[in-house]
Amino acid sequence: MTGLSDNEKSRYHRHLILDEIGELGQQKIKNARVLVVGAGGLGCPVLQYLTATGVGLIGVMDDDKVDISNLQRQVFYGMNDLGKHKTIVATSQMKKMNSNVHFDLLNIRISYKNALDIVGNYDIIVDCTDNIKARYVLNDAAIVAGIPLVHASVYKYQGQLSVFGYQGGPTYRCLFPASVPEQAEDSPIQGIYSMIPGIIGLIQANEVIKIITGAGDILSGKLLLYNALTNQFSTMDIVRDERNFIKENLLKLFTH
């Protein structure tokens, strides 16, 4: 991509005067290609802040349509959007926020059949799904493609987050081993406190920008836990399991 325009230098001025980012870091952000899978509770804040920050290309992947039950926590959408594809509504909003950013709309569900063809077009994957099977697909595709996966999930008043596969760091499978992810069962629908996806989604976006710019410590090898009721953060270590990095075994999952 081209260098920063005068318009972009004005827009991102507060980044340019940060020692950890500067013009070089903002150029890296502009050159970055990020795939966000899931345009729901987590995806909304991730997409908003990656757009505002100036990520050059953002893939927006979700096959769902807006439902009234989404509006409590999925802040991109309103009553006029009911029944519309989330990717279309979200992208329309983001284009108004920042015309410098380009978007790929993917109105499909991630699977072992399409994942490798899709993720190869990006530098970073952001897992904003609420689907256990999709998490394994994204993890395995990220490992095969050799790119980091910024994962998060939410439950009631709690959220968790980690960066998988970053510079050889642990994977989602190291945290949650599963021999046959296709048979993984999703949990029954549970309540979600409306603030939790926003809080955790912002931390996901933060990790993405840190990976791109090289600023700060990446949340690799650790699982960040947050409880909104107690307002407490904690972390637990994730141990790398070498068996989860054997590409020959992972590739077999994509050939069925």
Task: Write a structural description.
With 256 residues, this protein is of the alpha/beta class. It has one domain: NAD(P)-binding Rossmann-like Domain (Rossmann fold), CATH 3.40.50. The chain is 36% helix and 18% strand. The protein contains ten helices and eight strands. It has an eight-stranded mixed sheet, sandwiched between helices. The termini are far apart. The mean pLDDT is 94.
What is the C-alpha radius of gyration, as a whole number of Å? 18 Å
Element-by-element helix/strand order: HHHEHEHEHEHEEHHEEH
| CATH H-level homologous superfamily name | NAD(P)-binding Rossmann-like Domain
CATH fold-level name = Rossmann fold
Determine the N-to-C terminus distance: 37 Å
| Number of discrete helical segments | 10
Tell me, briefly, the overall form: globular
How confident overall, as mean pLDDT? 94
Unreliable stretches, pLDDT < 50, 5 or more residues? none
The portion of residues assigned to helices is 25-40%
Hey, roughly how much beta strand do the residues contain? Answer: 15-25%
Tally the beta strands: 8
What does this entry show, briefly?
Helix content is 36%, strand content 18%. The protein is of the alpha/beta class and 256 residues long.
Topology, please?
Blueprint lengths: L5 H6 L1 H4 L5 H10 L1 E5 L5 H11 L3 E5 L24 H12 L4 E5 L8 H5 L4 E4 L4 H14 L3 E7 L2 E7 L7 H4 L19 H19 L8 E6 L4 E6 L9 H7 L3
Parallel strand pairs: 1-2, 1-4, 2-3, 4-5
Antiparallel strand pairs: 5-6, 6-7, 7-8
